[in-house]
Write a structure and sequence with these properties.
alpha+beta, 79 residues, 2 helices
C-alpha cells in the first residue's frame, strides 16, 4: 500500500471543495491507494510534466507525483 503525502496546496484546495466534492475526493483517494487501476480514476500522466492526474468527477482532478510506493498529492483542480 503506498504512502500518501498531502502538500499544503492540496490541503488548501481540499478545504475549498463542497461537501459533496470532498466525499468524492475521499473516495478517489481510497481507490488510488487500494486499486489505482480502477476505471473511474482514468489516471494518466500530464503531458510534458512529471505529474499524474486522477479524476474525482467530470470537473475535478487530483494532481500527484508518484515515487515508487509514495503518492505526493499536489493539488485538486476544478475544470
Amino acid at each position: 500500500m503506498p504512502t500518501i503525502i498531502l502538500t499544503e496546496p492540496f490541503n488548501n484546495d481540499f478545504r475549498k471543495l463542497s461537501p459533496t466534492e470532498r466525499k468524492q475526493a475521499r473516495k478517489t483517494l481510497g481507490f488510488m491507494v487500494i486499486n489505482p487501476k480502477h476505471n473511474s480514476l482514468k489516471i494518466h500522466r500530464i503531458k510534458g510534466t512529471g505529474f499524474w492526474e486522477a479524476y474525482v468527477n467530470k470537473d475535478t482532478r487530483v494532481v500527484f507525483e508518484q515515487n515508487s510506493d509514495t503518492l505526493i498529492l499536489h493539488a485538486i483542480t476544478l475544470g
